Amino acid sequence: MSETTSTQAPVMLQCQSLTRTYNEGPQDLTVLDSLDLEVRAGERVAIVGSSGSGKTTLLNLLGGLDRPTDGRVVIADQPLSGLKEAALGQFRNRYIGFVYQFHHLLAEFTAVENAALPLIIRGQAKKAAEQRAMQILERVGMASRADHKPGELSGGERQRVAIARALVTDPSLVLMDEPTGNLDQTTAATILALMDELAQESACAFVIVTHDVGLAAHQDRVMKLDAGKLVAQP
Ligand SMILES: Nc1ncnc2c1ncn2[C@@H]1O[C@H](COP(=O)(O)OP(=O)(O)OP(=O)(O)O)[C@@H](O)[C@H]1O
């Protein structure tokens, strides 16, 4: 944890007895089994685990993209189960930034338009939203490609635009699925430095799912998802 973040920092994310069972096959599959997790403001937690252990399932529940079978997720004191779909969408826009494994950029929009989108959805004027988006694109080294559409960008460049889009609203919590998967070492280091700055500057909390040992080791804590529960790694 950064030096400015004491153990007294407010809890930003809480999972209590979180369970997710899929009922789609011939047999029920319990992927998360009464899992507990607490992440404080400004804290960065890496989640590791073998393929199929439930990392993406967990991220989807944390972001309110899926509902748990049992237990609950509380973000900034708000239980997600207490929000209906429309309110949940607004809450997500207000508090959470996502970086998905497959970046989900809109093909017909330029990089700066994609990065500005969460602010436009929030009701901000296009010009102000794009100005702010340009600042973040600069920080991820993408300002010179701002007018290009995703189809004209490399995988790593698209990933950086997705990261800019996740950070543009100054979220309280950022959820990342393999954020540096497509990036070379130098660019990955730039993104890591930006995450450090944000954790310190704005007490942003990060939950990062990754197979990248270096990325995991860079975080404040590493938790391994195993048999449906999180186990702290030394
Ligand atoms: N919608 C679904 N219906 C049924 N089973 C599912 C569903 N989504 C995921 N699963 C199963 O749940 C388990 C966990 O999947 P999940 O994608 O969360 O794993 P993961 O740890 O993110 O894997 P990876 O590292 O390979 O991305 C897997 O066995 C998967 O097949």
TrEMBL record:
Gene3D superfamilies in the record: P-loop containing nucleotide triphosphate hydrolases (3.40.50.300)
GO molecular function, one term: ATP binding
PROSITE patterns membership: ABC_TRANSPORTER_1, ABC_TRANSPORTER_2
InterPro entries documented for this protein: AAA+_ATPase, ABC_transporter-like_ATP-bd, ABC_transporter-like_CS, ABC_transpr_LolD-like, MacB-like_ATP-bd, P-loop_NTPase
GO cellular component terms, semicolon-separated: plasma membrane
Keyword Translocase: yes
UniProt-listed CDD domains: ABC_MJ0796_LolCDE_FtsE
Matches recorded under Pfam families: ABC_tran (PF00005)
Keywords: ATP-binding, Cell membrane, Lipoprotein, Membrane, Nucleotide-binding, Translocase, Transport
Superkingdom of this protein's organism: Bacteria
SUPFAM superfamilies: P-loop containing nucleoside triphosphate hydrolases
One Gene Ontology biological process: protein localization to outer membrane
Family designation: Belongs to the ABC transporter superfamily.
Protein name: Lipoprotein-releasing system ATP-binding protein
Organism from which the protein derives: Vreelandella arcis
Taxonomic placement: Bacteria, Pseudomonadati, Pseudomonadota, Gammaproteobacteria, Oceanospirillales
